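fold-stage: in
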Amino acid sequence: MKILKTLSFCLLLVICQAQLAAQEHPTAEKLHHILIIQWADGVDLKLKEEALTLFQRFPEKVDGCEEVSIADITLSSDDFDTIIIMVFESQAAYDAYEAHPDHGRIVALRPKLVKSASIVDYWK
């Protein structure tokens, strides 16, 4: 059953990536950036909270980052613990998020915090 769920999830990711690649220059659409995380065993809770707080503050710090939603999905997923959904008004806003020093801090923390992760981006 776990293999079937994993294969289904992988298929969903491939479909989403194919749809994203097929989209050219969306006009009124927004970029949805989804991170699905499995935390490392014995994760440092203080560092985890720091990373989640950094994510939550992006709408205040990055122009065009409209929304950040974070949810615990441990009860609905065999492998993943947390989902982070971010909404950007444009590609430029997403690029500003990636260039932001707080994003750099999250990237630096990742090896200490994350066992595995998946990312899906789409325009809607």
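fold-stage: in (second)
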Amino acid sequence: MKLNRSPKRIPAFILFFLLINQAFAQLILVHEHENPKKRDRFFAGSPMTYVHQNGIRFSGYLESILDSSIILSGEEVLLSDIKTILHHRRGIQFLSNLSLTGAVFYVGLDLTNALLSRSKPLIGSEVLPIGAALAGSGLILRSFRYNRRKVSDKRKLKVLDTSPK
């Protein structure tokens, strides 16, 4: 089988790759770290939670990134107004929810069993400490669900432009 290599297609091929590179260009919000492998990158459309300079926590989806500000859920926020970025730890959140749900189901199952068998007391003395321990561990884990990363002189927020110049 012979391939058709027309010299007329080469400029169109080059033009296609130059334009496709521009189509994928975007601005990226980067929270720097001393170790470049630990940089946090935020793209348009990614979820973000931060603490404002006045201490109020905001959460939403990053709609667009501008040179010195971002648009988060329709509100424009200057990069200099961001005090702390909160990273959601999904594993800890899952374990916290699992522990709280397990406590409710464990105590609820014992309560249902006692109601069906018409036994007294409704909640057994050995069930309550286990349910309380599960609920307590879930509430303690809930306080660790965010990793706080402060914005400082060493850890700056930068906007990177990936478009070709």
